[in-house]
Design goal:
Elements lengths: L1 E6 L4 E8 L3 E9 L1 H5 L6 H23 L8 E7 L3 H18 L3 E5 H7 L12 E6 L4 E8 L2 E7 L5 H11 L7 H8 L24 H12 L5 H30 L3 E5 L6 H13 L3 E3 L11 H12 L20
Parallel strand pairs: 1-4, 4-5, 6-9, 9-10
Antiparallel strand pairs: 1-2, 2-3, 6-7, 7-8
Helix pairs in contact: 2-3, 4-10, 5-7, 5-8, 6-8, 7-8, 8-9
The protein binds 5'-O-[(R)-(carboxyoxy)(hydroxy)phosphoryl]adenosine and zinc ion.
Zinc ion binds next to helix 4.
């Protein structure tokens, strides 16, 4: 089975083709980041309009790259939530329309399930069961994954998502949106001894997170110090260390609590170099292993949607002709 996947839930348009036997055949991505950076965040209406412009050309591009014509495609998958309602509607409408025109089944995909299963696109995919750390701009969750579609939330954020905390702190440091990767690059130049940020909630039992305090701590540190480039780098360093250590402590706790040895990390913040390195060290100490998608599949992409869509279509699931999207939708509801 060969499936066309479409992702339009936020500010990235992605298209990909996944083959159940041969794996990923082609994928492409267009990011609105530069356009949205001007506004300091994602403007939903602009995101939708841009998806309208980009989705069909990107689908044509992946079809050409894979050397396929419509009769070679056996199903169409598209993100139906969570995300921006208008943006989701674009991908869902285009995807459902193509599947109708090509007379193949359609399947709506949960964006976070896409992230969660993105490591399955790599050469040594994790076996079930595993613990997953989902860290993106909108989510910070520890998930107990028994099998595909069987998800139990072990821990969640009580306030800001970790990517949101990165972006807000980056903004305070004068970096442009979405600042996570830029903050991380700046942190490399920081002095590790200058500032120490608190590790929120690590001394309390449980697997929940809270990141809004760290952002406030960053704001206070910024206002109490000079605004030199070195000071900014030192603050970025201390912030990143605190976030990463907090995530590592909770991941270790989740592995011990479940007694499982496999940890999967997914979502945009999973691209963070320090996080990858520290989780690797922790997992080795726990005699476990950690699985990441390649960097480009940590952030939003069409490949993960084509993959999940293919698995669900193979399991016999299908969507009818009605086009519905679910802007707020928990992964445990799947
Ligand atoms: O998964 P994603 O592309 O979109 C959502 O579904 O939210 O995640 C985007 C988030 C942003 O907050 C971005 O700043 C963050 O991932 N991010 C990073 C890095 N690369 C992306 N955060 C920290 N370090 C990075 N290297
Ligand atoms: Zn995402």
């Amino acid at each position: 089975m060969r499936v066309l996947g479409i992702e339009t839930s936020c500010d990235e348009t992605g298209a990909a083709i996944y083959d159940a036997e041969k794996g990923l055949l082609a994928h492409t991505l267009y990011s609105q980041v530069e356009m949205q950076a001007e506004y300091g965040g994602v403007v939903p209406e602009l995101a939708s309009r841009d998806h309208v412009r980009k989705t069909v050309p990107l689908i044509q591009a992946v079809m050409a790259e894979a050397g396929l014509s419509p009769q070679d495609i056996h199903g169409v998958a598209y993100t139906i939530g969570p995300g921006l309602a208008g943006a989701l509607m674009v991908g869902a409408t285009i995807g459902r329309t193509i599947s109708f025109a090509w007379n193949v089944p359609a399947i709506g995909v949960h964006h976070m399930e896409g992230h969660l299963l993105a490591p399955m696109l790599e050469s040594n995919p994790p076996a079930f069961p595993f613990v997953a750390l989902l860290v993106s701009g909108g989510h910070t969750q520890l998930v107990k994954v028994t099998a595909m579609g069987q998800y139990e939330i072990l821990g969640d954020t009580l306030d800001d998502a970790v990517g949101e905390a990165f972006d807000k702190t980056a903004r305070l440091l004068g970096l442009s949106y979405p600042g996570g990767a830029a903050l991380s690059a700046l942190a490399e130049k920081g002095d590790p001894k200058r500032f120490h940020f608190p590790r929120p909630m690590i001394d309390r039992p449980g697997l929940d997170f809270s990141f809004s305090g760290l952002k406030t701590f960053a704001l206070n540190t910024i206002t109490q110090n000079d605004s030199s480039e070195q000071t900014k780098a030192d603050i970025a360093h201390a912030f990143q260390e605190a976030v990463v250590e907090t995530l590592v402590v909770k991941c270790r706790r989740a592995l011990r609590q479940t007694g499982w040895k496999r940890l999967v990390v997914a979502g945009g913040v999973g691209a963070n170099r320090l996080l990858r390195q520290q989780l690797q060290i922790m997992a080795e100490k726990e005699q476990g292993s950690v699985y990441f998608p390649r960097q480009e599949f940590c952030t939003d992409n069409g490949a993960m949607i084509a993959y999940v869509g293919c698995q669900r279509l193979l399991a016999g699931q299908r969507n009818d002709l009605e086009i519905r999207v679910f802007p707020r939708w928990g992964i445990e509801e799947l």
